[in-house]
Specification:
With 254 residues, the chain is of the alpha/beta class. The chain has eleven helices and nine strands. The protein has one domain: Rossmann fold (3-Layer(aba) Sandwich).
Amino acid sequence: MTRIIGFHSCKGGVGKSTLSVLCAFWSGGREDGLAKKVILIDADPWEDCLKFQKKRKALGMPCPFAVVPGGNFDLNTKTVKNFTPEKIDEIFTPDQIDLIFNPDKIDLIFIDIPPRGVNAVGGILEVCDLIAIPHRVGGTEDGRLEEMLQDYESAGLGKIPKILILNEIESLSSNLVVKFLSGRLRQEATLVESLKTFARERGLPVVCVAKSLDCQRLMLLGVSPWEQHGKKTKMYKTLRICQDLSVVVAALGI
């Protein structure tokens, strides 16, 4: 049976699209014989996931999953719709085409859900088997987390399992001294612990991911952290994000 995992936050800029791509890449690109057939539905109006796929196609690099625009996929029937042959050739490789037109082959669907309130995207959320909630520590959305969880309950989505992903919890090394002197390091550490306590009190699983700036750059290049780490460049701190993601995917059960 196809499993559906949605990444949702009421606010943009929390790492939702980046995490969607990284988890899809992890699940579809495994080399241990456990790789899954993965589709990523890009319902976010910025279409960052789709841009990632197009970048790889332009570079002649295979993508181990298929990104489908949200308006071209029916989540209830798990079938594509409203595609012209020209658009299909523009976006997909032959292997991806075979996958998107054969829903029985799909093992896992990730959805990059638009950064809107629960009521505005309830139709997407209700088909999810798991809702992942990326949350930027110290952002303006800290005070809205309780409200968002209440909105899930009010919308009849309370029984769908959820997981909180605390994103960008580690400062860049160049800012450590400044943050220490200003007391911001202690403030951030206190916020992280407060959010963990908040999640535990509500029975909400929580995982942490280091600062995602490096992966955001890789998204623009169309490269995964594993590929970049293999080049042994010092330009990106990819090893830490690989370690963190192994924890995330384990928590997501993928």
